[in-house]
Write a structure and sequence with these properties.
By secondary structure, this protein is of the alpha/beta class. The chain contains 14 helices and 11 strands. Strand 3, helix 4 and strand 4 form a beta-alpha-beta unit. The two termini are 29 Å apart. Bound molecules: ligand TUI. The site of ligand TUI has 18 residues, from strand 5 and strand 7.
Length: 314
């Protein structure tokens, strides 16, 4: 079985984290992933802290295993969410779209493992100095809010720049991706898109079907500098592109995007919803239980590792 330092750090069986996707990663999905030996993560997004507390309690009612909460740093509730995870003694937090540095003393004192998502070497170094436990290096193949560097280029640069464990994310959906991440020096992977299609994921069936139908060129990056978001192409992204051509302001573009993730995830609006998904969408073939997803990734990875030496000529 594939075990790395990440398994010991987090008390999990396999070095696979589930992305903490807003509106998508509910308690049901997080519990299923943790119960299957990975680290399930609740995506707090912009949700009210009391709603997040319910999800934490849901996970605890479904599994005794470790789990995490992702805190999205553009949420208006960041301070209250930090207090909440401390109060609820959540084992692990991941963070996105911001720098959690100022909250580290409080989180570390509470014994919480802190694993920020970073998209640059500079922030990785700063956060290592500030005392985080590990880092998720997220390449721009991922879905949702993205950085500028690909996983293949970013992961080894961050691995070279820090001593703490690095987890690779962006474009990873199967055993090949896991082995590639390990080869780049990562000690594990974070997977989002494939887990949207987990049977236990509560998003609307239409969202899952859109990912399964997607082919290689079916995602697009919308947004403006500092705020780029990868989604599946649809009528919303067409409208967005038209507005961009007309020179719309960031405020107008934000108005078009407002509440559209909820429309996709809850109402199943595949035409005008924001179907956040990564470039690995085309690798996702079916809806299956989280346990099957994890086991098939591990089986594939082990096969590849066993046969890798055979690729070399005498
Ligand atoms: O956070 C993500 N991905 C997300 S969050 C999200 S929720 C959303 N909902 C509606 C519209 C837009 C977003 C969807 N996808 N990924 C983690 C991530 N964090 N990637 C890159 C970063 C990042 C960027 C800048 C982390 C830190 C950072 O630092 C800025 C600073 O303060 O130095």
């Amino acid at each position: 079985m594939i075990r790395t330092v990440l398994c010991d750090l987090l008390g999990i069986e396999y070095p696979i984290l589930q992305g903490g996707m807003a509106w998508v990663a509910t308690g049901e999905l997080a519990a299923a992933v943790s119960e299957a030996g990975g680290l399930g993560i609740i995506g707090a997004g912009n949700a009210e802290p009391e709603k997040v507390r319910e999800e934490i309690r849901k996970v605890r009612s479904l599994t005794k295993r470790p789990f995490g909460v992702n805190i999205y740093y553009m949420s208006p509730h960041v301070e209250a969410l930090i207090d909440l995870v401390v109060e609820e003694k959540v084992p692990v937090i991941t963070t996105g779209a911001g720098n959690p540095g100022k909250h580290l003393p409080k989180l570390k004192e509470a014994g919480i493992k802190v694993i920020p998502v970073v998209a640059s070497v500079a922030l990785a170094k700063r956060l290592e100095r500030a005392g985080v436990d590990a880092l998720i290096a997220e390449g721009m193949e991922c879905g949702g809010h993205i950085g500028e560097i690909t996983t293949m280029a970013l992961v080894p640069q961050i691995v070279d720049a820090v001593k703490i464990p690095v987890i690779a994310a962006g474009g990873i959906a199967d055993g090949r991706g896991l082995v590639a991440a390990l080869a780049l020096g990562a000690c594990g992977v974070q997977i989002g898109t494939r887990f949207i299609c987990a049977a236990e994921c509560t998003v609307h069936q239409n969202y899952k079907e859109a990912i399964i139908k997607a082919r290689d060129r079916d995602t697009v990056v919308t947004g403006y500098p500092g705020h780029y978001v990868r989604v599946l192409k649809n009528k919303l992204t067409k409208k967005y592109e038209e507005l961009m051509k007309q020179g719309a302001s960031p405020e107008e573009l934000d108005r078009l995007g407002a509440n559209k993730l909820r429309a996709a995830a809850i109402e199943g609006d595949t035409e005008y919803g924001s179907l956040m998904a990564g470039q690995s969408s085309a690798l996702v073939k079916k809806v299956e239980p989280a346990r099957e997803i994890i086991q098939s990734i591990l089986r594939e990875a082990e096969d590849i590792i066993k046969n890798l030496g055979g690729l070399l000529c005498e």
